[in-house]
Fold this sequence. Notes:
It catalyses: ATP + protein L-histidine = ADP + protein N-phospho-L-histidine. By secondary structure, the protein is mainly alpha-helical.
Amino acid sequence: IRKNGxxxxxxTKTNSRDEIGELTVVFNDMMTRIETSFEQQxxxxxxxxxxxxxxxxxxxxxxxxxxRWGKDDPAVLDExxxxxxxxxxxxxxxxxxxxxxxxxxxxxxxxxLQITDVNATVEQVRRNFEVMYxxxxxxxxxxxxxxxxxxxxxxxxxxxxxxxxxxxxYSGDGTEVDx
Length: 179
């Protein structure tokens, strides 16, 4: 067994029912479980890094804004501090969710669902992306419809952030994102 050798297995003889044959089958099963565990751990770290990167970028954008000129404008200062605190709270929730997943706890999702104001959440994400990506224009095509959804607020934020992140990433030469 080497660093990257978890995919290798011991050959089993077709009709081997002796102790060595049984031990080979058990060993191969154990290697499969170990390989699966390592792959899940690798995926978990990749997902965690991706999920935590965006709130950190949003907070960094707000702090840079304050450093440049925003600290002298009470409205900008207030918005940036509130956005940073919101992102900090979201990071805490993400970390808790990751801990729950790593412990393989079965948490009932239905107990945590809440009626969420979709319009307000979209607007909040849009404002954060304007701070993060100053060279982009994010246009929200508003509808008078009061949209609400039965969803965990932080999950809706995560979905919107992933969509917006991809819109920026794959915009090519464009600098406008219509929402």
